[in-house]
Design brief:
Number of domains: 2
CATH topology of the largest domain: Conserved hypothetical protein from pyrococcus furiosus pfu- 392566-001, ParB domain
Structural class: alpha/beta
Helix content: 25-40%
CATH class of the largest domain: Alpha Beta
Strand content: 15-25%
Largest sheet: 5 strands, mixed
Shape: globular
Radius of gyration: 15 Å
Distance between the termini: 18 Å
């Protein structure tokens, strides 16, 4: 199971993901998110891994929230941080799979990518990522 620690990170110390899960960000939706965060604050922390050897972090989930925080010129943001050595795909998959309403369309592509990078079975790989047993499958 991946160990996460809650802490505040300087927004300018966080890099965008090397392999983002979204193909593109809708600028209008990003602006709407920034407007909402300006009024309501950050409702869910972002996920990050790090620091690396240069003291930098990489966003794992919450990329849009990070971009909205940059638009708002926030100096810091709440984050759940794991070690740099954790595969960001596995951390992202773990975050998505623990949601009780995670949709199959979200789980399946992530599971397939994880399986293609591993010799484990699909169910075993996904279950291990989520800290669960192989009693369920992607």
């Amino acid at each position: 199971m991946i160990q996460f620690h809650d802490r505040a990170l300087a927004v300018d110390s966080i890099d965008e993901p090397a392999a983002p899960s979204r193909e593109a960000m809708d600028p209008m939706a990003l602006g709407a998110l920034a407007d909402d965060m300006a009024v309501n604050g950050l409702l869910q922390p972002i996920g990050a891994r790090g620091p690396n050897e240069h003291g930098r972090f990489e966003v794992v989930w919450g990329h849009r929230r990070l971009m909205a925080a940059r638009i708002l010129h926030w100096p810091g943001i709440a984050a759940r941080v794991c070690e740099w050595s954790v595969d960001p795909l596995v951390a992202r998959l773990s975050e998505n799979l623990i949601r009780t309403r995670a949709k199959r369309r979200v789980r399946s592509p992530s599971c397939a990518r994880a399986v293609s990078r591993s010799r484990r079975s699909r169910a075993s790989c996904a279950a291990r990522s989520a800290g669960s047993t192989h009693a369920w499958s992607c």
